[in-house]
Write a structure and sequence with these properties.
Helix content is 13%, strand content 45%. By secondary structure, it is mainly beta. The chain starts with a helix and ends with a strand. Bound molecules: calcium ion (CA) (2 copies). One calcium ion binds next to loops.
Amino acid sequence: MAVRLRLHRSLSLALSWGLMAACAAQGLDDFERTGLDLRSVVAAEHRAQLSLVPAPAGLGQGSALRLAWTAERGDWVECCYQDEALRDLPPPAAAGTCSLGLALWAEAFADLKYLAVRACDQEGETFEWRVPPGEAARTGWRRLDLQIGAATSSGHWGPWKDGVESGNGRIDPPLRLQGYAIAFGGEPARAGQVLIDQVAVHGGTQP
Ligand SMILES: [Ca+2]
Ligand SMILES: [Ca+2]
């Protein structure tokens, strides 16, 4: 009996380590730097004011990216990495799906509809994935996970050549993390902010 128990425990440990290895996270951005290598758009209604700020205690660590907006904002605001700061997603993401996780700090009743993560493919086509922030009545950190892959994308656009959209609608590897967007619900617009930190990707599965 004791031998069987030891064997069972060893097998469980081996399986746990195997799962941990298979699910090992690859950090994409922890925002631990002084210079900001992200920018927002020119259009005022979609512009976010960007800064790196100390992360409140909880899921964030060190510094976090702050996206703030004014009461003049439109239905969404966005930001993207400078071209030289685009983050490579691992090959499984290019081939199929992977799980991208991040920590989002949001204020209670901020009327957030979803957070979007954007990535661009080899031909410059942008793909977007969305996740509701949940827990609307609570101020604080929440953990969000998105499945990144062709089947789970909520939309794609670009690139434009001579004013004509030329993308083929397919993910052409490699995929690179391009930026983030926050969309709002239907309440009257007011100023607000979110923080993003600890962006990481977990190994994916082939399609
Ligand atoms: Ca951080
Ligand atoms: Ca494409």
